[in-house]
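Tokens as discussed.
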């Protein structure tokens, strides 16, 4: 049986024309997806989590905790505090779980800032 050897020049030419468009397509698709996702996040930020978007949002693919040796629990806690979603009276009152925002030490509201820096309990 005779097997024809591939034409090296033809193979190189084809690979140049075939590989480049696929790589370009993949890069363009990824770029378009990031832009679309960012657009959706910005639109949602107009109505949901306004405080977070006004204070912290940065259009960056790498999260703030990348290359930092932090525990998952710590990262989640910091992200919840930044987003103003935590298990304290102010946050629970905002979503209707409790009827009061007052701290147990009788301070007018129980939020992360008060509990971390002021509350004596």
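Sequence:
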């Amino acid at each position: 049986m005779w097997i024809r050897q591939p034409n090296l020049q033809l193979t190189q030419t084809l690979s140049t024309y075939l590989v480049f468009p696929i790589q370009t397509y993949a890069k363009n698709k990824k770029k378009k997806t990031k832009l679309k996702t960012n657009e959706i996040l910005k639109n949602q930020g107009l109505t949901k989590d306004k405080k977070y978007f006004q204070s912290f949002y940065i259009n960056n693919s790498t999260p703030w905790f990348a290359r930092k040796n932090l525990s998952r629990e710590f990262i989640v806690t910091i992200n919840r505090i930044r987003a103003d979603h935590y298990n304290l009276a102010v946050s629970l009152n905002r979503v209707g779980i409790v009827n009061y925002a007052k701290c147990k030490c009788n301070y007018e509201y129980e939020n992360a800032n008060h509990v971390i820096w002021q509350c004596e309990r």
